[in-house]
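LAB NOTEBOOK - FOLDING QUEUE
OPERATOR: T.R.
BATCH SIZE: 2
PURPOSE: Compare the predicted structure-token outputs for two unrelated chains run back to back under identical settings.
PRIORITY: normal
REVIEWER: second-year student, initials M.K.

ITEM 1
FIELD SEQUENCE / FIELD STRUCTURE:
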Amino acid sequence: MHRSLVAALAIAGAFTAALYAAPAWADNGALAADPRPANPDHIITYRAQVMGTDVNLTIWGEDEKAAAAASEAALDELRRVDKLMSSWLPGSDVSKINAAAGKRAVKVSPEVLKVILKAQVVAQKTGGAFDITVGAFHGLWKFGEDRDGSIPSPEAVKERVEKVGYRDVIVNRRRRTVKLRRRGMRITLGGIAKGYAVDRVVAIMRKRGFADFIIQVGGDLYASGRRGDRAWRVGIRDPRGDRASTFAVAEIENRTFSTSGDYERGFVKDGVRYHHILDPETGRPARKSRSVTVLAKDAFTADAWSTSLFVLGAERGMKIVEAMPDVEAVIVDAQNHIHVSSGLRTKLHILRQPTPGI
């Protein structure tokens, strides 16, 4: 369905400047040197392009050498996960599963098995609102670099919808194999793999002795520890504002913010917005939300649920959120109304109403 979960969180306040300040990753993915003196505010920041999206790592500390080494390790881990789970790399486990659709089962790594099993649980809980077999729409809708403003015919969409169905993903835990029951089926882990990758980076950073940092991979952000004597402050991007515009902020510690939005990859045509988050049931862009931000203990959980809730919409989605422990959400619905789950109402500061518009 989509190559990546797009960047959907803006970092509010002073952290905005820190997030985009050098030192940075060079365009080729290598760590770029910063000729300037150390940041007196103890902020060390790195940037990269990995997994088809922007990566930002901000560390609160003073040891730039250790921070650089840890950041290199984090980047290597993101690349490793991408090689396993990307549907765009021919040698990945996901690509092998897709190539064998309707033919045979494919043995996969324990990590890929773990991610697929998690995806299947979310699919069951949402009645298919989250469905990794939306990979069947690959190439039909053009929202990325191949965007040309074209809209597929109803017949073409219907043909692909018939190849969607999470129940046709056959998983054998003992043999560690995955098979797609029908030819033409295709999976994508774009709605969950980045969350898994973020959690892997968090583990690496902590193992290397860093407790206070933020890692952001596209729309998935984990805030670990604190920024000195205060919590990290993060903002939720205005769905119809510019990239730096936020409509709400919150202070978080050892939590994930994951956002799915309709504004990064898509286009407006004849007064209608078309975007990359597709409803598995219709094969067309989901229409009940503009953005969904999920707060959870881990990025793996938050990533999957931000996509799911976007498709479900506020009415159904918030009922599920209120029944889940340690999961909160902020939903901007199709009418631009803000919905905040009960556990976030005293923690989230709404700055203003999101910008209206298509």
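ITEM 2
FIELD SEQUENCE / FIELD STRUCTURE:
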Amino acid sequence: MLRKFIHLNLLLGIMLLLASCGSQQAADQTNDQSAQNNPAVDTTGTIGENGMFVFKAYDLEGGLRDSREWVGKKPVVLNFWGTWCPPCRKEIPDLVKVYNEYTSDQIEMIGLAVRDSPENVRTFSEQNGMNWIMLMGDQNLGIRYGITGVPTTIFIDRNGNEIGRFVGPRDYQTFKDAFELALRS
């Protein structure tokens, strides 16, 4: 019974993630298929290791990165997004503005692009001044951390604990207040 419940929740999470940000066009489906052929995330990690967000994901050059490079050392902002997602595109100028007010010595920001290709993410992020770490996320990572749609932004304190989460796009002042809270925590 418990096993069926877990499988049902897993299936529901996948369906919600796939349905977020509206329908996909044929080009987006092609990008999604290429991402599935090269899994983006090592899903063997566990949630809650020492209370921290622990995961591995590939960067845009294909190198496997471990969240412990940043999480647990200083505040971290995780932004789940996609180049194909209109609400994600809407919030990016405000994220860029807030991020540029802080140095990576104070707070680290990590973009986790879902249902996308490294080429699209690289081009889009360069054109829009998104100068933070970019990784390729996948549905397993989203499910593990309760991501039901994009954009989702998670704020993590210097001890690796979640202190806030936004589902859906936010504006400059909302992001600035959350960055300040992360720095104080």
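REVIEWER COMMENT (ITEM 2): The longest strand covers residues 76-81.
FOLLOW-UP: none requested
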